[in-house]
Design goal:
The complex is a heterodimer of chains A (about 150) and B (about 500).
Chain A (H helix, E strand, L loop, with lengths): L4 H17 L8 H18 L1 H16 L9 E2 L5 E2 L23 H29 L17
Chain B lengths: L10 E2 L6 H4 L4 E2 L3 E6 L5 H12 L6 E5 L5 H8 L14 E5 L1 H6 L2 H15 L3 E5 L1 H4 L6 H17 L3 E6 L10 H5 L2 E10 L2 E11 L8 E7 L2 E5 L17 E2 L4 H6 L4 E2 L3 E6 L5 H14 L4 E5 L4 H10 L5 H5 L3 E5 L7 H15 L3 E5 L1 H7 L2 H4 L2 H14 L3 E7 L20 E10 L2 E11 L8 E7 L2 E5 L6 E2 L7 E2 L2 H6 L15
Parallel strand pairs in B: 3-7, 3-8, 4-5, 4-6, 6-7, 14-18, 14-19, 15-16, 15-17, 17-18
Antiparallel strand pairs in B: 1-2, 8-9, 9-10, 10-11, 12-13, 19-20, 20-21, 21-22, 23-24
The chains are: A mainly alpha (about 150), B alpha/beta (about 500).
């Protein structure tokens, strides 16, 4: 399933927020993991670990079709990631049909797919409210859906 | 010395149209309530409406989900309702999932989780959905009873109004300890009757205030649950003082037969077979009311409003202008699967909207047929409640009813509803001089004297026109097969017994 471009944009914005809050010399993939964990914490609180696990598993399968290296990642029963090193940025030379300016790393794609599923199931309005709760200092514009959500 | 004041229990709006009336003005604040019913009966939707109506960021609602419907799916579906305001999430309404605790730990741990969340948020409303799944694991009755009592005590002390939602069967009512602890018990039922679904709500228990007893119809629409009180929302309305005013039909001879017209606030029944002019009389009644400045409602079931208005035009009565002026509403009520209470609510809404003084129901047979089969059994009882409620606030109701013409009896209605009408006007065909003619007679007027005359009438381009004086030259008119009676011979002729008159057929 193709990733809606606005979800990729949103995922990158979330990573930007995390970059601002993280250590300057943090390990590769740490930002992606923090974004993922924030989303997990948010969804887990209102829907439970099982619900998050189901969503994350689906997102992972969808993301693997674009970033095959994500096949090494597993979703634990509590929804946490196992093998998160695979989230690190990497160039996927096999799949460049989107003509993106930059190849997406596994973490961005996984997060974008997860956001896409939240959008599908909860709708834009509730999904944005959930993100606002997870990133209180972030700015999310839900009045401009046509151009994607802006940070 | 001042008498110490009793505790005042604030009543919270339920957010469900019609339910405030049923529960006696609103839900008691800090009460501990159960919403019970089978799957699909509307329990979660009802709770959501209450939550959305009462939660604020300062006093939020905590909605604990347990095993059962996933919160994600619940939100996906619930946001389709118009009452769902996403702006209330996540600060005014917070969803908290307890599945893991329930699955892995005991009720003590569940109580601890709820306690922590409540102490942190100080919520005005707490919902546990579904409570039944939470306590489904085997445990002793004392554990469950102790858990429920501690939960109820804690939540009330923290000034939260609580709903526990559960799939319960009615046979569990007697033995389940949670029903004993609960302050309020709302039971939702959904049954299939022939091809119709009938939803009913019962307040089995509500501490601290009087609720309207019985089963109340409810419906789930895009707006959520809507309940229809058996009192039609007219409970507490001041009754109009008894009026001595008489309302005219616009037919002087008929008004005279009625002792000056229909008494305001009466329920009038016009009974007759097909084609006797029941609808014409009803139309004249409503048109005369409008002419006298009394707004009116016509509930039609057998023809569309446009056709009804056009027929009135053919009688020289203008029903188009008053509709445009907001003085008249013609309701066409042929919905599928509507309950009698819903139909009556539509009528009541229209009555209240234009402050109607006259209401025509044309006809009772059409009304009954418009209802889904499952509701027809309640028809008489509901009709009684509606007429009682409406006449109580001074609305004068005129209903038409078709009766089968009989030559051996003189029925007033096939519904045995004459007991709920104050006045009855009977129309019928008679065979006179080789013609099928029409007669009318006032059978009953509860509010006073009326003419006993049997009068002949015709339906003309001006409506019902009463002809001449009472028919004195015939006997057995109400049988439909009268005998011409030579009065002069009878009065002058011999009679073996006093009071018995001799009939004489005209050659």
């Amino acid at each position: 399933m193709a990733i809606p471009p606005e979800m990729l944009v949103l995922a990158r914005h979330l990573l930007t927020y995390e970059a601002a809050e993280g250590e300057p010399a943090e390990s590769i993939g740490a930002r992606e993991l923090r974004v993922y964990e924030r989303l997990r914490s948010c969804v887990d609180a209102f829907a439970g670990a099982a619900a998050f696990h189901a969503l994350a598993s689906r997102a992972l399968v969808l993301a693997m079709s674009r970033v095959p290296s994500l096949g090494a990642v597993r979703i634990a029963v509590d929804g946490s990631l196992q093998g998160p090193g695979e989230l690190a940025p990497q160039i996927d030379t096999d799949r460049n049909e989107g003509n993106e300016d930059q190849a997406d790393d596994g973490g961005v794609v996984l997060i974008a797919q997860l956001l896409g599923l939240l959008d599908v199931f909860l709708g834009e309005s509730l999904a944005i409210r959930l993100l606002r709760d997870a990133w209180p200092s972030g700015t999310f514009d839900d009045s401009n859906a046509g151009n994607g959500r802006k940070a | 010395m001042r008498t110490p004041a009793k505790v005042a229990i604030r009543k919270l709006p339920t957010g469900i149209p019609g339910l405030d009336e049923i529960v006696g003005g609103g839900l008691p604040e800090f009460s501990f309530n159960i919403i019970a019913g089978a799957p699909g009966s509307g329990k979660t939707t009802l709770a959501h409406q209450f939550v959305f109506a009462n939660a604020t960021p300062e006093r939020p609602a905590l909605y604990f989900t347990v095993l059962g419907e996933s919160a994600i799916k619940m939100l996906r579906y619930q946001q389709q309702y118009t009452f769902f305001d996403p702006a209330k999430l996540p600060h005014a309404i917070r969803f908290i999932n307890l599945s893991q605790v329930v699955l892995e730990q005991d009720l003590g741990a569940v109580l601890e989780e709820i306690t922590k969340a409540v102490e942190k948020a100080s919520p005005a409303v707490v919902v546990v959905d579904s409570f039944r799944t939470m306590v489904r694991k085997p445990q002793s009755e004392m554990d469950l009873q102790s858990f429920v009592q501690r939960l109820a005590l804690f939540l009330a002390s923290w000034q939260a109004t609580t709903f526990l939602i559960g799939e319960y069967a009615e046979e569990e009512l007697r033995d389940n300890p949670i029903f004993t602890v609960a302050d309020g018990l709302f039971w939702l039922r959904q049954t299939a009757e022939r091809n119709s679904i009938v939803r009913k709500l019962q307040i089995i228990k509500l501490r601290g205030q009087a609720s309207v007893p019985g089963l109340h119809t409810f419906r789930i629409t895009d707006a959520g649950v809507q309940a229809f009180s058996r009192t039609f929302g007219l409970m507490g309305h001041l009754k109009n003082p008894p009026s001595h005013r008489r309302l005219s039909f616009g037919i002087p001879e008929l008004d005279a037969m009625l002792g000056g017209g229909v008494r305001e606030g009466d329920s009038v029944l016009i009974a007759g077979s097909s084609g006797t002019g029941k609808s014409v009389l009803a139309t004249q009644f409503i048109a005369e009311g409008i002419r006298e400045g009394e707004p009116g409602i016509v509930a039609v079931f057998e023809e569309r409003p446009q056709a009804y208005a056009e027929r009135a035009t053919s009688l020289g009565l203008d029903l188009e202008t008053p509709q445009k002026d907001g003085k008249l509403e013609i309701l066409y009520l042929r919905p599928l699967d509507l309950s009698v209470d819903e139909t009556m609510h539509a009528i009541l809404d229209a009555v209240q909207k234009i402050d109607a003084k006259r209401l025509v129901i044309d006809s009772l047979a059409g009304f009954e047929m418009a209802l889904s089969p499952g509701f027809r059994a309640d028809f008489r009882e509901s009709l009684y409640r509606m007429i009682f409620a409406l006449t109580g606030i001074g609305v004068t109701i005129l209903s038409t009813v078709e009766v089968d013409e009989s030559f051996v009896e003189f029925p007033f209605s096939t519904y045995s509803i004459s007991f709920l009408t104050d006045d009855i006007i009977r129309l019928r065909y008679v065979s006179i001089d080789g013609q099928l003619r029409k007669i009318m007679v006032v059978i009953k007027m509860r509010g006073g004297n009326h003419a006993k005359d049997i009068r002949e009438y015709e339906i003309t381009s001006k409506g019902v026109v009463i002809l001449g004086n009472r028919l004195t030259a015939y006997q057995g008119l109400i049988s439909g097969l009268p005998v011409h009676w030579d009065r002069s011979y009878a009065e002058e002729g011999p009679s073996d017994q006093p009071g018995i008159r001799t009939k004489s057929k005209r050659p």
